Amino acid sequence: MGKIKKYTLSLAFGLVPLIVAAQGDAYLSSYRQTWLLSRNAAGLDAAPFEFANTAQLLYSHQDGDYHLMQQPQTDSQFSFDTQGAASIGKIRLWGSFEYDNHHSSGSRYNTLLYDPFDENYIYNVADTTASDFNRQSYSMAFKAAAPLGRSLHLGLSMLYRDRISAKQNDPRSESVSYLVNFAPSIVYSFSSRSSLGLALGYGHGLERSVPTLSNSSQMQNVFVLKGLGNYVEDMVGSGGINIMYYTTDRAEASVQYSIDDSSLHFLSEALYTLSHTALREDYSQPRDIGSSSVNDLQLNSYLVLERERSLHRLALQALLRITEGTEFSTKQVTGVGWQVVSKAIMSRYNTLQADLRYDCFLTEGDSYRWQFSSGLDYTLKDDEYLSPQSEFSYSA
Prior knowledge:
Elements lengths: L3 E13 L2 E3 L1 H10 L10 H4 L6 E12 L9 E15 L2 E17 L17 E2 L4 E17 L4 E16 L4 E18 L4 E19 L7 E8 L2 E7 L7 E17 L3 E18 L5 E20 L3 E24 L3 E28 L2 E19 L4 E6 L1
C-alpha cells in the first residue's frame, strides 16, 4: 500500500483603513456575510455590513503513491488571495484578487488542459508519459450595489480569470485560457429583516492549447478521450493533432431569500447554470471534435446565529449535475474543409453532491478564542457511455 503525505501552511491577516485589526475580527466578519456567498451583488446594499479587508497566503504539498492515474505523484501549490470592501457615497463596493501557482511531477493522462477533471472538457487529449506539469492562474472579482428607492437595490458582479499551463516532456503543450463573467442583480426588501433577490449571469471562456514536440524527429502517440475509457488514437507531430480550441458559453439564473437582524442571518439560494463547451481543432480549417452540455441545479443555505459569547454557522450545499457529451463525425472536402456528417449524444453523466458543515466560535468581544468545525458530505455518481456501452457509478 502506498503512502500519502500532505502538508499545508497558511498565513492570514486582516486590515481596516488606518487600523490593524485582529485576525479573529476579520475571520468572524467573513462568516457573517451570507450575501457575499451568493450570486447576487445587490445584497451588499440590502444587508449592509462592516467588512474587515483580508489577505491570505497558503502553501500546500501532497506526495504519495496512492492516487488516481490522472493525478500527479507530487503536487505543490502556492496561493495568495485578498479581498476588501468600501463605500463611496451610496455605492457599496467589494473586490478580490487570487493567484495560484502549481508545480506537479509524475503527471500522466493530460496533454492539453489546465484542469482535466472539469466535466466541461470531456474531450481531452491524454498520453502515458510521466512529466512535470506547471500551472498558474489569477482571477479578479468585483461587486457593486446601490439603492434604487427605499426597498429596491441594484447590483452588478464581474469576474475575470486567466490561466496558463505547460507540460514539460514530449508530447508537451502550452495552454492559455480566460473566462469573463458578469451578472446584474436586484433585491427587493419586504421589511428591515427579509429580502428577495434575483440575479442573471452570462460568461464566455476560451482555452487554446498548442501541442508541440521538443524532439521533432520522434512523433508521440496520444489518445483523444471520448468518455469512460473510450478513445481514438492519434499523435503529436507532423500530420498529427493540431491546435485545440475549447470555447465555453455559460448562462445562469438564481433566486435568493434572506432574513437579517442583529443576532440571526439566514440566506437560501437556488441556482441554475447551463454551460456549453465546444472543441474544435485548427483555426484555418476548423474541425468539430465534440461538445459538452453541463446542467447544474444548486441549492445553498446558510444560517448564522450570534449569542453573547458564541457564533454558530450551519451551511448546506447541494448540487445536481447532468452532463451530456456530443460527438461529431466529419469528413474533409477538397476546397471546403471539414464538414460535419453526423452528430450524436454519446455520454451521459449524472452527479449528486451534498455537503453539510457546522462551525462554532467561542467569542470574546469582536474576536474569538476557539473554533470547532464538523461536516458531512455525500457524492453519488452514475455515468454512461452509450456505444460501446460502458457504465461507471459509485456513492461515498
